[in-house]
Amino acid sequence: MPGSRFPFLAVLALCLALAACGPDPVDRLKAVRVVPDPSRTLEQVLGSYPHFSRVGWSTYPGRNGESMARVTGIFNLDSLVGKAGGGRIFSGRDRAVLDKAKINLCYVLEYAFTKDAPQGVRTRMELLLTSMDWDRSAPLQNEDILAEIARGVAGEATIKAVIDAADYCRSRPASAPGRHGQ
Prior knowledge:
Blueprint: H1 6-20, H2 25-31, E1 33-34, E2 37-41, H3 42-47, E3 52-61, E4 67-75, E5 84-85, E6 88-89, H4 92-100, E7 104-113, E8 121-130, E9 135-139, H5 144-151, H6 156-171
Antiparallel strand pairs: 1-2, 3-4, 4-7, 5-6, 7-8, 8-9
């Protein structure tokens, strides 16, 4: 039909607008290569870690116009019971403390993507202890846990962090009725 160019032009304009936006920040983050195993992408490393129950990817605009992307791996705490780290064993009692507090323990990486850094710059690497009522972050000073994730193991650094989380929950005052035996 000679007079019906509007749908074609509308589709063309939409395609051009989407192409101008560049690659999705989550797709960029998934493609990041990490130092502990540069032969695999971050998506491959985190997606194959047997001690995560779930891995989530998200994006949001940064404060200075950069595109931010975050990946959160939620630890499967049941799979860690009986493993040793930091001279201790993550026990069923430790697991019960975290369960009673309704805690998720998460590994969080966040990257900023800009015109000057299209490959991304890591802005956050931490463990996040989170419940319905509160959360607490513990910034990581090195890549020991990421190295263990890349190797597919829950080693010294990971187990120490999980035990520290249980100890924190034991020492934290109750914030909800019925918590910590009340």
